[in-house]
Structures are given as structure tokens and as C-alpha cells.
Amino acid sequence: MRTFFKVLLILVLIAGCWACGGPRPITSQTSQAAAQSGELRFKIPAGWVAEPTTSKMRFAQFKLPHGDQDSEDGSLVVYYFGQGEGGSVQANLDRWIGQMVQPDGGDSKSKAQTKTLTLNGLNVTMLDITGTYTAEMMPGAGDKQDKSGYRLRAAVVETPKGAYYAKEVGPSATIAKWDQAFSAFVNSFEFK
Questions:
Q1: Which strands make up the sheet holding 190-191, listed edge to edge?
Q2: Is 62 in contact with 44 (CB distance < 8 Å)?
Q3: CA-CA distance, 80 to 57, in Å (whole number)?
Q4: Which residue, 77, 81, 151, 155, is CA-closest to 119?
Q5: Is position 1 within any domain?
Q6: Is residue 63 part of a domain?
Q7: Sign of the alpha-carbon dihedral angle for 165, 114, 149, 101
Q8: Residue 8 is assigned to a structural domain of this protein
Q9: How far apart are CA 42 and CA 44, in angstroms?
Q10: Pairing outcome for strands 100-101 and 74-80
Q11: Is residue 17 assigned to a domain?
């Protein structure tokens, strides 16, 4: 009887491990590498440093090495919450705009640049804004960043499996250093 339960326990553990699937590896950091989230694919620009994701909501995250004028690196995180999850495109744009405070006290929404385009058959909404970055350090914790001279760029990609959210943030000069890489990254989005 004990042997039966041991075998049953082993089978349950194996099935559980198989169902989890483990982390989604990013095999290369070259511009030829492609990462896949569900069925969204994109090319990883040369120079971006892949990092382990820190939550299940994050499909991929990258460190963007700082420029000569900055001492802090930038970051880019691709989020996927599931079909119908994560809020509307506009709600996310508004939340991100609200994370940037203007040094002159002006309205961040009027300073934000947004555009919508179609890339490889996908609707992509872009955001670009500078200011003082004041996002919460950990969602729900209440403690906020206070990083002046920052820039936030984002792309919301609408796919048949739901939206994917790519958010790039860091010191303005560092983000400017990676402008072409970010554009190439966004232009590489495919749904297969």
C-alpha cells in the first residue's frame, strides 16, 4: 500500500512540474534573438541585457546600460496579464502619464506624446514623456520613486490573445541612447 502512495505522489509531483512549465528562457541577447510570449514575438536589440523576470506578470525584462551622461541604467519590462486583463490601453497610458510629474508643475498629459500605428497587423499605441518619475517602488506599497530628469516610453500591443505592455524608463540621456533600439524592438513585434 505504501508503494502505491509513493508512486502516486511521484506522479502528482511530475505532473505538477510539467504543468508549471518553468521559466521562459531567453536564449540570446543578440539582435537576431527572438523572445516569445504566448504568440507575441520580438527581436532583442544588441546591447540590452536580459534579466530574470521578477514576477509572473513579467514576460521579459532588460537592463539598458546607462549613457556617458548618466550613472543609472534604464529598464524595459514587457508585461502580459492574460486575455482581457491588465486594463484598457487608455487606462495604462493615463497611469503611466500620472507617474511623471513636470518640473514646472504643468500638466503631464499635455506634455505626453502618443501615437497609434499598425505594425505587422497589430495595433500598437506608443507613449513618450519626460519629467520626474514618481511610480511606486512596489505596487501597493505607497513608497514612491523621486527621479528627476527621467523619460518613460511605452508601447501597448493589442493581439488576439490580449494586450502586451512594454515600458521603458530611465534617465533621459540613457533612454535617448536607446531610441533607435527601442524603435527597432517595437517594429519587430509579430503575432504568430
A1: 34-37, 40-43, 190-191
A2: yes
A3: 6
A4: 155
A5: no
A6: yes
A7: negative
A8: no
A9: 7
A10: unpaired
A11: no
Q: What is the 3-state secondary structure (H, E, C) of the chain?
A: CHHHHHHHHHHHHHHHHHHHCCCCCCCCCCCCCEEEECCEEEECCCCCEEECCCCCCEEEEEEECCCCCCCCCEEEEEEECCCCCCCCHHHHHHHHHHCEECCCCCCHHHHCEEEEEEECCEEEEEEEEEEEECCECCCCCCCECCEEEEEEEEEEEEECCEEEEEEEEEEHHHHHHCHHHHHHHHHCCEEC
Mean pLDDT value across residues 5-28: 40
- Can you give the pLDDT at residue 151? 96
Q: How many residues does the chain have?
A: 192
Of 89, 98, 119, nearest to 184 by C-alpha is 119
CATH of the domain at 145: 3.40.1000.10
Q: Is 32's pLDDT higher than 90?
A: no
C-alpha cell at 154: 511605452
Cell for 148?
A: 528627476
**Confidence bin at 99 (pLDDT 50/70/90):** very high
The label of the residue with cell 500500500 reads 1
